[in-house]
Design goal:
9 helices, 3-stranded antiparallel beta sheet, 2 domains, Aspartate Aminotransferase, domain 1, 4-stranded mixed beta sheet, Aspartate Aminotransferase, domain 2, alpha/beta, 13% strand
Length: 263
């Protein structure tokens, strides 16, 4: 997002999610708004934390956006991958459809991330702007994936139930692997990512831990400070992001390898 904001000549203002529950501070959010605020970028279900924002949180965001006449760009690509938590599109809240561009993706819901095909919807006045930008960025997706996408979106609801059930097993496997290895992981409410605090088993920052885990243990993770601005990066300095969009057998191997951390 940041390079696009910079390219548009705007200034990014950051509101962090605080560990261990990955919630934002309402006062920090309110303080981020001023007379120059034009848009708010929202991501729920959230990468990298696995949070699904509650109705109360979304209502506060909506009220502030209405008060300050701000447009919301809502990244909801994990909308169908939740674990008990209810995903609420912010565009469904009162007064928000006409000021929200909702973005989603075939890649996440149907496991075809390499296809890079998705969609945006909202009020026609907003989508006109999306189309004008899209014309000079991507122009068009290849035709076969559009046909496949239309077919996939016509599948009945049992697909999504099976999809969530499959990932529930994978979530449980990665949670057990991390917990047994001594990491403090918060069970994700959505997405196929989980954040884990490694401070009890490793003395160093997230980049050092990622290098250690890859080279010595044989498990890859992402140092999440790269998801934060410089000012807020310290909040994730003892965290690691793990992805569980892998086979069940591989996730079991992850558990075996992580057990080496505990000796």
């Amino acid at each position: 997002y940041v390079p696009n904001i910079t390219m548009a000549g705007a200034t990014p203002v950051y509101v962090p999610l605080h560990p261990p529950h990955w919630t934002f501070d309402p006062d920090e959010l309110k303080a981020a708004f001023n007379t120059k605020t034009r848009a708010l970028i929202l991501n729920t279900p959230h990468n990298p934390t696995g949070r699904v924002f509650t109705r109360e949180e979304l209502t506060l965001i909506a009220e502030l956006c209405i008060e300050h006449d701000v447009t919301v760009i809502s990244d909801e690509v994990y909308e169908h991958l939740t674990f008990g938590a209810q995903h609420i599109p912010i565009a469904t809240l009162p007064g928000m459809f006409e000021r929200t561009v909702t973005v989603s993706s075939l890649g996440k819901s149907f496991s075809v991330t390499g296809w890079k095909i998705g969609w945006a919807y909202g009020h026609p006045d907003l989508i006109k702007g999306v189309m004008q930008a899209h014309q000079f960025v991507t122009f068009a997706s290849n035709h076969p994936t559009q046909i496949a996408g239309a077919f996939a979106l016509g599948l009945d609801g049992t697909y999504y139930e099976e999809f969530q059930a499959m990932y529930t097993v994978k979530r449980d496997l990665i949670m057990k692997a991390l917990t047994d290895a001594g990491l403090k992981a918060r069970q994700p409410e959505g997405t196929y990512f989980v954040m884990a605090d490694f401070s009890d088993v490793f003395d160093g920052d997230d980049i050092e831990f990622a290098r250690y885990l890859t080279s010595e243990i044989g498990v890859a993770c992402i140092p999440p400070t790269f998801f934060y601005c410089t000012q807020h990066a310290h909040m994730a300095s003892t965290q690691a992001r793990f992805a569980f969009c892998k086979s069940d057998d591989m996730l079991r191997q992850v558990g075996e390898r992580l057990s080496k951390i505990m000796g």
